[in-house]
Amino acid sequence: MIESILKILLVTATIYHATPEQTDDTPFITASGMYINPECPQCHRWIAVSRDLEELGFVFGAKVKVTGTGYLDGIWTVQDRMNPRWTQRIDFLVNQDIKGGRWDNIKIELLSY
Fold first, then answer.
1. Model confidence pLDDT, tens digit, residues 53-81
2. In whole angstroms, how far apart are CA 108 and each of 27, 30, 73, 99, 100?
3. Rounded to two decimals, what is the model's pTM?
4. Which of 13, 17, 56, 64 has a beta carbon 3.0–4.6 Å from 103's, enabling a disulfide?
């Protein structure tokens, strides 16, 4: 399969869990309205993006190839939105047994939207 890359950026990546402390009072519903499987949030391979990235095409449902994080590299789908205080950032939805994670200058490639 040949991938058509629409946009490439360098951003900071972090992780988040589906908990009220890290989301809102509906931790198993993303900003796009999708329901998170509480048994395995990471199985969805969903990311949240900072709002400035939405303006560049990284919108709900967009497929994004991530490179530079090691075990989290690969294709992810935008299904959530980050707090307005963040810019140039993505957040991986992961299972709660994964603790901590921050990567600077990782490459994200917009594949479709």
1. 999 999 999 999 999 999 999 999 999 99
2. 25, 21, 10, 22, 20
3. 0.91
4. 13
